[in-house]
Design brief:
The chain is of the alpha+beta class. The protein has 25 helices and 21 strands.
């Protein structure tokens, strides 16, 4: 009993030790995969999570081939946890990532067990194959001895060959007579086929064949081949006694006597069902792996160092723009690289051949049709008998990253435009402050001159220039904040006439500008600034299409759109039929081919040189027109210029008053006390002079701190605070919030070079507060102050 207990303890110890070894092997493999993944991260973009899981799957396959299936499964589990926690964004957490990462993890977990099982099975199959080869040699030796002893008695032969045949597992060795009937039996026949001796000897070779093969005479043909050539071997389906099918390796060797006469056949059957199942499983997993590669867009390649042979799968060839049956050797691969990337790729390749380390590279390839595509390759060198630092073969995968590169470029362009917008908004704000001073003091100067004073014309020109500059700053602010449109009934001809001077200034002297504005047109429901922006974008594109000069025509007309008059390019969009107002810009420039015309409205598409255009002008036109309920149409031919038409639904002529030209109303005077708070001396002086001339008692402060001190000194004698929104220290909005607590009921009028929407969005001002945008005329300030004071007195 004590001896049994000791043996049991020993067995348990061995089992625990084997389990510990398996866990250690799995952890070591995962650690190596983590180190490899982290090492290649600085040199290759591994944002595709499929590549990360591919590295951990490779580690599991190595463990399966070297140790076994169980530790390989542990490696898969530990690898999934490590990859998800360490490398899948967001890192070092376990929440669900994006759909691509979840898909990659699913493919990894679905295909990993099968692939590792195949790797471990190959190890077992290799051991079984060695045993099978040894057994085959024994059988062939026995068959030769059987042929030499053909005249011996049947009982002697059966006894002679019974023992080795009985020892074979999943195999059967028996004899057929010269007519193909079973002549011998052994225990291997019972194990493999299920027949006892008596019933087996009553049957022939054809009884083991499936009915369809037997009907086709397959067994007779096999015997005939064995007679003719001495031996016949084939893998085929056979039938057991119970009717079940199994995949067998069959071998028939003809046995002849001393005189050369046919005595019979020596038959060997081996059950290869397990091997066939492994092969089928391998095929299925290869298909799954190929599906995973296709889902991830990966192509596989292999390079033989000794022969310089480069092999690519169909997917990899497609990434080079080649058909599946095309060849691509290494010189052709180098020739396909973009000239600017060829030297860098050759340097990486030389490093791989020298150091046999994992590598990655991003490069451009030129397709046979001239298209340029970005590819990312990663791989490693492998060796067998050669030293570890001398790779015999380099294998890897390749991925198309063209879309990612384009997205990155577009993102950089968007960021650049956003930065330009922020800069434009800041410039417009500061410029509005200066324009307010120019307009205000010019107005005072105009009021001081006699009506017939020749200097009055000069002052009017200054005021007009300042107003035009103020219009430009409004456009800059609109660009910076991407303002919502404010549509109204709009006279398009009026917008075109007001923009004439600006259009002439951007065209230059070598382009003739022609206006063909129809008098018999209605109005459209659109935003005035947006229509002006649409026209200017079309004018700028037309100018760029005529580098050597030409003629640009701006035309408006009214037309009725019927089924027969819908432009061919717009049939798919099906615009509503009816009356439209058209604004068209025609140039006599270079024109466009059909392919360019088809893509001209796409964002970021441009035919201009790098740095000369963003590709956003026409796409902005398209979006703005669609937003206003209209549509666009273009016609062009190379060398014959371009016509771009913008169509809006037309309404009867009844334009709304121009918001930019408010009606002049008399300014009411006042006697209240007003505090002016502004850090800009010119604007503070302008406001003080305006309000003093209107009869008000005025105080001034340079910032919020001084304003609070003056308010405290006034002890309730203050009626209104006029403050700039953007100031050093406390902002005007903050001052107003504080005054609402210290002096409830004290009205505050806010001014800023930003619009009120901009100030609210920037957090500088609360919504619904009295607001006056700079630049403003002195009368506008006086009128607004009177309005705010009257509204406050009504509330009190």
């Amino acid at each position: 009993m004590q001896k049994v207990a000791v043996q049991a303890t020993y067995v348990r110890g061995v089992a625990h030790a084997e389990g510990a070894v398996e866990v250690a092997a799995a952890l070591f493999a995962v650690l190596c995969a983590v180190v490899l993944r982290a090492a290649i991260e600085p040199v290759v973009d591994l944002s595709h999570t499929a590549l990360t899981f591919f590295i951990f799957l490779s580690a599991a396959v190595v463990v399966a081939g070297l140790v076994g299936f169980s530790p390989a499964l542990l490696t898969l589990v530990f690898g999934a946890l490590a990859a998800w926690f360490v490398f899948v964004p967001p890192r070092y957490t376990f929440p669900v990532a994006d759909l691509t990462a979840v898909s990659s993890l699913g493919v990894y977990l679905l295909t990993g067990p099968g692939i590792t099982y195949l790797a471990s099975s190959y190890k077992t199959v290799g051991i079984n194959a060695a045993a099978a080869r040894e057994m085959t040699a024994k059988v062939e030796r026995l068959e030769r001895e059987l042929a030499a002893l053909a005249p011996a008695s049947q009982a002697t032969l059966e006894e002679r060959f019974r023992t080795p045949a009985d020892e074979m597992r999943d195999s059967a060795i028996y004899l057929l007579d010269d007519r193909g009937r079973h002549a011998t039996w052994n225990k291997g026949v019972r194990r493999l086929l299920g027949y006892d001796k008596a019933e087996f000897l009553q049957r022939g070779a054809g009884d083991l064949y499936p009915p369809d093969d037997r009907a086709a005479g397959a067994h007779e043909r096999d015997l005939a081949v064995a007679v003719q050539h001495g031996r016949f071997a084939e893998d085929r389906w056979l039938i057991r006694k119970d009717g079940s099918r199994f995949w067998a390796s069959t071998s028939m060797t003809s046995v002849r006597g001393r005189q050369g006469q046919l005595v019979g056949f020596a038959c060997t059957l081996r059950d290869h069902t397990g091997l066939r199942q492994v092969e089928e499983e391998l095929r299925r997993h290869r298909e799954a792996l190929e599906l995973a590669h296709n889902a991830a867009g990966l192509g596989a390649w292999q390079f033989e160092v000794a022969t310089s042979e480069l092999r690519l799968d169909a997917r990899a060839k497609s990434l080079f723009g080649l058909p599946a049956d095309a060849g691509l050797d290494f010189p052709a691969f180098l020739a396909a690289l973009h000239p600017d990337d060829r030297a860098a790729v050759q340097e990486v390749w030389a490093s791989v051949l020298r150091d046999a380390k994992p590598f990655s590279a991003e490069y451009r390839v030129v397709w046979p049709d001239g298209g340029i595509h970005w590819l990312a390759s990663m791989g490693r060198g492998t060796s067998a008998a050669a030293p570890a630092d001398t790779p015999q073969r380099i294998t890897g995968v390749v991925l198309d990253i063209t879309e990612r590169k384009q997205t990155e470029a577009q993102l950089q362009e968007v960021l650049r435009l956003e930065a330009v917008g922020q800069l434009a908004g800041g410039i417009a704000h500061d410029l509005n402050n200066m324009l307010a001073a120019i307009l205000g003091f010019s107005d005072f100067l105009a009021q001081s001159l006699e009506p017939h004073d020749p200097r009055s014309r000069d002052v009017e020109q200054i005021i007009q220039a300042a107003n035009r500059s103020a219009s430009l700053t409004r456009q800059l602010l609109a660009f910076a904040r991407r303002e919502l449109i404010q549509p109204r009934r709009l006279d398009v001809n009026g917008v075109v006439r007001r923009s004439e001077s600006m259009v002439r200034s951007v065209l230059g002297p070598n382009i003739d500008l022609v206006f063909d504005l129809s008098k018999d047109i209605g109005v459209v429901y659109a935003d005035s600034g947006q229509v002006e922006q649409i026209m200017m974008n079309l004018v700028l594109n037309a100018r760029d299409a005529m580098p050597h000069g030409g003629r640009l025509t701006i035309e408006t007309m009214s037309l009725v759109l019927g089924r027969a008059t819908v432009p061919a390019q717009l049939v798919g969009e099906a615009p509503a039929l009816g009356r439209y107002l058209m604004l068209s810009v025609t140039d006599t420039g270079e024109g466009m081919d059909p392919a360019t015309l088809q893509r001209m409205w796409e964002p970021f598409f441009t035919t201009k040189p790098v740095g000369a255009g963003t590709g956003l002008g026409l796409s902005a036109v398209y979006g703005a027109v669609k937003q206003s309920g209209g549509f666009v149409w273009a016609e062009s031919e190379p060398g014959r210029g371009t016509v771009v038409g913008v169509y809006w639904p037309e309404m009867p002529y009844a334009p709304e008053p121009d918001e930019d030209a408010p009606a002049a109303t008399p300014v009411e005077r006042g006697s209240e006390t007003v505090l002016v708070v502004d850090d800009e001396p010119l604007l503070r002086a302008l406001a003080m002079r305006t309000l003093l001339s209107a009869g008000y008692r005025c105080l001034e402060a340079v910032d919020a701190a001084e304003a609070l001190r003056l308010i405290e000194e006034e002890q309730g004698g203050l009626h209104l605070v006029v403050t700039d929104v953007v100031m050093p220290g406390m902002s005007g909005g903050g001052l107003g919030e504080l005054l609402s607590q210290l002096r409830p009921g004290l009205p505050v009028l806010y001014t800023s070079g930003f619009t009120d929407e901009d100030a609210i969005r920037r957090g500088l001002l609360s919504q619904g507060k009295p607001f006056l945008q700079k630049p403003f005329a002195p009368n506008d300030l006086a009128r607004t102050v009177r309005t705010v004071l009257d509204a406050a007195s009504e509330l009190s």
